[in-house]
Amino acid sequence: MWDKEEIDSSLRAYVVSKVQYSEELLRATDCDDVRSVSQICKDFDVSRVTSLLLYASWKEAFRVVAFLLEQGADPNAGDNMGRTSLHFAAISGNYSVTEALLNKNAVVDTFDKNNVATPLFCAAMSNDPDVLKLLLKRGANINAGLHDHGVSALHCAVRANNITNIQLLLELGAIPNNVQLFSETPLHTAASMGYNECVKLLIDHGACLEVLMGVMKMTALHLAAQDGNTEAVRHLLNGGANIDARNARGQSSLHLAVSGQSLETAELLLESGSVCST
After folding, report:
1. Where is average pLDDT lowest: 48-52, 177-181, 207-211, 212-216?
2. Domain-by-domain residue ranges, the chain?
3. What digits encode the pLDDT tens for the residues 77-128?
4. How far apart are CA 132 and CA 145, in angstroms?
């Protein structure tokens, strides 16, 4: 999604461009020193207080966040990329800051300017499932982005191989299959990365095994075999994946396993009935 070093440097630069005494203010925010922040900000207008809220939310400075919100900071204002304070609180996995922003009417389903993520996407990649639950409880659309952009919070949880969040999302109604033709499904990602437990979870919750991805028209089994992810191949075969499906070049999973020099995967495919042919 977003690199943490990029977030930190870009937010610091954003505050510096908007606020006087910025270095002193950033240091105080880093320490959640609300007394120092309040003294420095006493004559600030709302726009400058709002710019600091973005950084404080990222730094998990709860007391500073609470103070800034009391001063009228806008929880729905974004940085230069359109990322809001709720995005930053969610990606940090901070429940208290997330709740404080929501209590001040932070918009829960907002995308950044590049349509990369909503706050729910960010929470799906964090290590605190309680933040994910909180956003859903406050009305976050569990399948936001799926129809318009071909990605959802479930995709993000799968990319992070966050089993707890994956299971939570699936149990609460996340759709495991994409609606856009030839787009990458969560199962494609999990199979390619060798996230074996994730592959099984998705299959158990109705992920379609035969969706074709990209111009090469690859199934999840093709991707798992190509990358030598033998256990993922086993889960897919047990789930009923078509062992003889061909990609756009006419290659089967066996062809791809052999091409990738994965002897173990090739042996499993042969034992499972794959036909060795040109």
Report:
1. 177-181
2. 181-278
3. 999 999 999 999 999 999 999 999 999 999 999 999 999 999 999 999 999 9
4. 16
Give the residue from 202, 88, 219 showing the smallest Cα distance to 152.
202
Main-chain dihedrals φ then ψ at residue 213, nearest 5 degrees: -110, 130
CB 197 within 8 A of CB 231: no
Distance of CA 151 to CAs 44, 144, 158, 265, 271, Å? 39, 8, 11, 29, 35
The answer to whether 159 and 123 are in contact (CB under 8 A) is no
For the whole model, what pTM was predicted?
0.93
- Half-sphere exposure at residue 188, Cβ-oriented, CA atoms within 13 angstroms: 17
Of the candidates 233, 229, 240, the one whose C-alpha atom is nearest the C-alpha of residue 270 is 233
Question: 181-278 adopts what CATH topology?
Answer: 1.25.40
